[in-house]
């Protein structure tokens, strides 16, 4: 496995670059968008992609390939050396594990794979002397899926149902901040998206939330750049808890269904919002995208 696939760039003058950061996996929608925005903010970016010999994952980075501050690394979360290579000299890592689009449900098998990958990456970060902060992308489901969820009046960063990554980060002395995101709204979203497995229950519980890509990217960079950031941040900018919200949500998932109306969903009722993201909103007040 080649340690780095360095893309040649056009030489032009610009201000001196900021710190070196890594984005892993940079082939997904979120990862590629993070790479593009970080380059715009003049960071040197190590983009770690899992290609397996297939150049398709690089398509999302097409707009960045001529930027001299970009280095692309072939990486596999289960190949320790291929994780270490892109982390070299980096002061931060943006880590996201995106479930394959063809995966119909986020089952126990996929959950185990995600945990194993996260542990490998955190171990590698602990061995990187220059690493100062890890921004770990997770889901709000890690907060709301708990046995006592019906008895909780409002979910926030204090509620947590999966502590394994945090335990390892603390044990290894890794400064980790987590972004627990709502359902990411992109053109690829469909009824097969694993997040939607419990959509009906989340709707009735007042915790079905979504997030736009731009807002999610801004949240990641804000949490990285703000030295006061710590712990977990719930990240969403829309709550689906009313019949008209449900109609728009359903239309987004099934564009071919043209006869949907609020009347079709009136039996769903209106449910009180029971999840908040005040901690993130407070941090982002002074953030300039």
From TrEMBL:
It comes from the Eukaryota. GO terms for biological process: steroid biosynthetic process. The keyword Oxidoreductase applies. Residues 23-161 form the 3-beta hydroxysteroid dehydrogenase/isomerase domain. InterPro entries: 3Beta_OHSteriod_DH/Estase, NAD(P)-bd_dom_sf, NAD(P)_dehydrat-like. Keywords: Oxidoreductase. GO terms for molecular function: oxidoreductase activity, acting on the CH-OH group of donors, NAD or NADP as acceptor. The keyword Chloroplast does not apply. This is 3-beta hydroxysteroid dehydrogenase/isomerase domain-containing protein. It comes from Papaver nudicaule.
